[in-house]
Write a structure and sequence with these properties.
This protein has 513 residues and is an alpha+beta fold. 62% of the residues lie in helices and 13% in strands. The chain contains 14 helices and 6 strands. The C terminus is likely disordered.
Length: 513
């Protein structure tokens, strides 16, 4: 009964920091996402529902990156709080080991680790497709029509520029309007100058409604001989109205999931199917590139690259015992030039054919590496969650500091180290320098010994990160040093020390003589 109460206390102490750190880490990563895509989201009049939906999908995509940091941060905070309040010491004094105290947290972490696999494998690919589908629709939408005093606006059409001198903020009336219209298929250019007017989109954002007052139109007409024959048309008007069909201002949702076919949008079953297909494609592309090169260009059927005359034909059995260069050097200059020209032409043809076929093989090979990396990532993330908890819990028990100060510093330091190692391993695996298994699991191989070492130290009540322990050692060392130098205090000066070293040097020189 007592153990169950302690386990409930530990579990309750862990759930609060877990939720808190998840919110903090998600907020920080979300700010990074907004900073990347802020230019695409602003100035388009998007509804709040669209932006919220995009942020929800982006948050789900950030779970694989943020969840290990959340587990590390929460574990350090929980165990640090228990140690700082001497609750952990009381539990140990009652006969409970550290692993027994952490038992409910380990069970919860294992469940979270298993759940994270299904999130990464099923939910994240779905959210990835939805997120980029929304971004694709947003990128197709044009900016909301907003005029600024004295500046040209080209958001309607790249061939139409509108510049008002100033706009009434209450009525929206534009004054001293200048419009350049070069959208005519024949290349005609129309310049419109008006004292005032209104330019706005219709309610359904399908038409551009233009109403201008007291202005002039200048139309420059071109024909086939525009460089020496052209005409100018000039019209005046009191009121001019126009209605132009517009596209792209109204945000339209489309299902673009089929267009998103990257490896990050697939689960582990689909990735395995792609890996099998890409293995076959890479093998076929390699065989198409290298086998014809070896058989037809380098090692021909008569085992000769060069088109030698009949006098230099070499039997296959004697090929290794003959030096071709010595034989070619005996020929006349014209025949040698002909042989070298033939060899140079064959080499260039081989290089061109290899370059063309090799590019196809490289594309398939790059896709294969990415698919393998994402396959291993879906298994590496749950393991990383468990490893980071096993690092954070003993760290918190050792430092015995709760709150947000020390845990944040240590968590960020470990996460940066983890991120750098993971990034280098993934880069090596993506370039084919390492296997996907070695590259994607490198961080796990590096952090696992650290977790085991910290668990051993925390179980043995080590003072590895206790600042008071280090300060106590420094104080004791200082006291011993002071006791050694105490008899010489006040009697040993710099001049006396210098005289002592000088006398020693003088005695040595006298002895040498």
């Amino acid at each position: 009964m007592r153990i169950k109460t302690i386990h409930k206390l530990v579990l309750k102490s862990y759930l609060g920091p877990l939720v808190l750190t998840f919110c903090i880490v998600t907020f920080v990563l979300m700010m990074n996402f907004l900073w990347r895509y802020i230019d695409e989201l602003t100035g388009k009049g998007l509804d709040a529902g669209v932006i919220i939906e995009l942020l929800v999908y982006a948050t789900i995509n950030l779970i694989p990156m943020g969840l290990p940091l959340v587990m590390l941060f929460a574990a350090i905070m929980t165990m640090g709080n228990l140690g700082e309040n001497y609750e952990l010491l009381a539990m140990k004094s009652s006969g409970m080991s550290l692993m027994r105290i952490m038992k409910p947290l380990i069970i919860l972490t294992v469940l979270i680790s298993i759940g994270s696999f299904f999130v990464v494998n099923n939910l994240v690919p779905y959210a990835y497709k939805k997120m980029y589908s929304i971004l694709f629709d947003i990128r197709k939408q044009k900016q909301v029509m907003e005029f600024h005093d004295g500046l040209f606006f080209n958001g309607i059409d790249e061939n139409i520029s509108i510049r008002p001198e100033w706009q009434d903020p209450e009525t929206g009336l534009l004054h001293n309007v200048l419009i350049y219209d070069n959208s005519s298929a024949g290349g005609n250019m129309t310049t419109t100058v008006a004292e005032s007017g209104y330019i706005r989109l219709s309610d359904d954002k399908r038409f551009l409604l233009i109403t201008l007052y007291n202005g002039e139109n200048y139309q420059h007409t071109r024909n086939s001989s525009w460089f020496n024959k052209n005409s100018m048309r000039h019209d005046k008007f009191e009121v001019q109205e126009a209605k132009i069909a517009m596209e792209g201002f109204n945000f339209e949702r489309n299902d673009n999931s089929e267009l998103i076919n990257s490896s990050q949008s697939k689960n582990i079953v689909e990735l395995q199917h792609d890996i099998d297909s890409l293995d076959v494609r890479v093998a076929e592309a390699s065989s198409k590139s290298y086998e014809p090169l070896m058989k037809d260009n380098i090692f021909t059927k008569d085992i000769q690259v060069l088109q030698l005359p009949d006098s230099l034909r070499i039997d296959k059995s004697d090929f290794r015992n003959v030096n071709l260069l010595d034989s070619i050097s005996k020929l006349d200059t014209r025949t040698r030039n002909k042989i070298w020209s033939s060899a140079r032409s064959a080499a260039q043809n081989s290089r061109n054919s290899l370059t063309f076929d090799e590019s196809t093989a490289k594309v398939a090979l790059s896709q294969l590496y990415r698919s393998k990396n994402d396959w291993h990532r879906k298994l590496a993330v749950p393991v990383s969650v468990l490893i980071f908890f096993l690092i954070g819990a003993p760290l918190g028990a050792i430092i015995r500091k709760g709150g947000l100060g020390t845990p944040i510093v240590i968590s960020v330091a470990f996460f940066v180290f983890y991120y750098i190692v993971s990034l280098n391993g993934e880069k090596a695996a993506k370039e084919g320098v390492w296997s996907s298994f070695s590259g994607m699991w490198l961080s796990a191989f590096v952090l696992t010994p650290i977790a085991i070492y910290l668990l051993i130290k925390a179980t043995n009540d080590s003072s590895l990160l206790d600042t008071e322990w280090y300060y106590d050692k420094y104080r004791k060392l200082k006291e011993r040093t002071d006791k050694v130098w105490l008899p010489f205090k006040g009697r040993v000066t710099s001049s006396k020390v210098w005289q002592m070293f000088a006398s020693i040097k003088f005695k040595k020189s006298k002895t040498n003589k």
